[in-house]
């Protein structure tokens, strides 16, 4: 898990929480460095379609892994009306992407709605290089990826907030 998930786990009452770098490889490496495979199986609570690579990597380090699906994410059927209107009006300057799957879904929905060409004025900001690669199917104004897979790094790609008129 990354620092965001670690913070949520700590807030939920877990007492022994450590963060990896936010990807499967770093999490498997951290587990191998800090846990003893002989101590018992690891529970890997995942979303449907996720973390098969992590389970495989952990097993490669000698761990017994019990992978259990605890949630399922379902893609939207269409883009919301306000999002379509904002795209058509050129009001969206950046879009944030947290997974390759969400990037693929959004690009399909943009094409389905006939607004894929509007992204030439939108910066695509990705949580990782892998996600940035998934975004290559459309002509975004630019595609940038964070140096580390942390939500704060993704927000930093947005840059400073635009200055607004002084409030009375």
Describe the structure.
By secondary structure, the chain is of the alpha/beta class. It folds into two domains: 69 residues, no CATH class; 77 residues. 38% of the residues lie in helices and 15% in strands. Helix 2 packs parallel to helix 3.
What tags apply to this protein structure?
168 residues; alpha/beta; three-stranded parallel beta sheet; two-stranded parallel sheet; 15% strand
Task: Encode the helix/strand succession as letters.
Answer: HHEHEHEHEHEH
Main sheet overview: 3 strands, parallel
- Domain tally: 2
Helix content class: 25-40%
Structural class: alpha/beta
Average pLDDT for all residues: 89
Q: Walk across the major sheet and give the strand order.
A: 3-4-5
What percent of residues are in strands? 5-15%
Q: How many beta-strand elements? A: 5
Uncertain runs: none
The first-to-last residue Cα distance is 44 Å
Instruction: Assign an overall shape.
Output: elongated
Organism: Teichococcus wenyumeiae
GO biological process, one term: tetrapyrrole biosynthetic process
Protein name: Uroporphyrinogen-III synthase
GO molecular function: uroporphyrinogen-III synthase activity
Question: Topology of this protein?
Answer:
Layout (H helix, E strand, L loop, with lengths): L2 H9 L12 H11 L7 E6 L4 H9 L4 E7 L9 H8 L5 E4 L2 H13 L10 E4 L2 H6 L7 E4 L5 H7 L11
Summarize the structure in short.
With 168 residues, the chain is an alpha/beta fold. It contains seven helices and five strands; from the N terminus they run ααβαβαβαβαβα.
């Amino acid at each position: 898990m990354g620092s965001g998930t670690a913070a949520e786990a700590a807030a939920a009452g877990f007492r022994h929480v450590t963060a990896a770098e936010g990807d499967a490889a770093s999490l498997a490496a951290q587990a191998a460095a800090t846990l003893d495979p002989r101590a018992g199986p690891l529970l890997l609570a995942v979303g449907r379609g996720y973390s098969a690579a992590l389970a495989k990597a952990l097993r490669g380090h000698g761990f017994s892994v019990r992978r259990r699906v605890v949630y399922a994410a379902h893609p939207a059927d269409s883009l919301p009306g306000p999002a379509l209107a904002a795209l058509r009006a050129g009001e969206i300057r950046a879009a944030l992407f947290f997974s390759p799957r969400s990037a693929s879904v959004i690009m399909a929905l943009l094409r389905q709605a006939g607004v894929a060409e509007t992204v030439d004025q939108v910066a695509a900001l990705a949580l990782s290089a892998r996600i940035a690669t998934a975004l290559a199917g459309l002509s975004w104004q630019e595609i940038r990826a964070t140096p580390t897979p942390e939500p704060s790094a993704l927000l930093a790609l947005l840059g400073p907030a635009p200055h607004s008129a002084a409030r009375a």
